[in-house]
Every structure is written in structure tokens, then in C-alpha cells.
Specification:
With about 100 residues, the chain is an all-alpha fold. The protein contains four helices and no strands. The radius of gyration is 18 Å and the shape is elongated.
């Protein structure tokens, strides 16, 4: 099992506190950090396949590619639709209370 703490949120918070998040440097820094986080997902799926006792690597690579694609698509779908709705509901509730 892999457990890690991403520096993306730390960097985001620091840039936000300094008012640099909306500038070009802040946007580029966050974009690079997010791309790195997404690439880590591919490596997490690929490492056991390459380092394990795989007898047929040619069959496992497409399965790993589909797995990574499904994970990233799931993250994108959840982050695009339900999460913004929930967060806006929470923001409306806190504004009233």
C-alpha cells in the first residue's frame, strides 16, 4: 500500500496566502504539481506489474492503461460534477448561518 502526502496543497496554500495564485507563475506552479500528481497514479499501477512476477507483460500493459484511465476519468467526473455542487451547497449554508 502506498501512502503519500502531496505537496500540491501545501504549495497551493502558500501561493494563496501570498496572493500569487491568480498570477501566471502561480497557475503554472499549480498546473505542474497537478500533472505530477496524476502521473504518480500511473506509476502506482505500473510498478507492481514491472517489478512482480509477471509472465506476460504484453497483456498486462493494456490492462494497466485501462485501469489508469478509469481512475483518472473517475476523479475527473467526481471533481467536475458532484464536488462543486456539494461545495456550493456548503457555502450557501454557511452564508445563511
Amino acid at each position: 500500500m502506498i501512502v503519500s502526502i502531496s505537496s500540491t496543497m501545501v504549495a497551493f496554500r502558500l501561493l494563496e496566502d501570498r496572493g500569487l495564485i491568480s498570477g501566471p507563475a502561480g497557475r503554472i506552479a499549480i498546473a505542474v504539481a497537478l500533472v505530477q500528481d496524476l502521473i504518480v497514479v500511473a506509476f502506482i499501477v505500473a510498478v507492481p506489474m514491472v517489478g512482480g512476477d509477471s509472465e506476460n507483460l504484453v497483456e498486462e500493459i493494456p490492462i494497466a492503461a485501462v485501469t489508469v484511465t478509469a481512475i483518472l476519468a473517475g476523479v475527473w467526473i467526481v471533481g467536475s460534477f458532484p464536488v462543486p455542487r456539494v461545495l456550493s451547497s456548503v457555502a450557501r449554508c454557511r452564508a445563511r448561518g
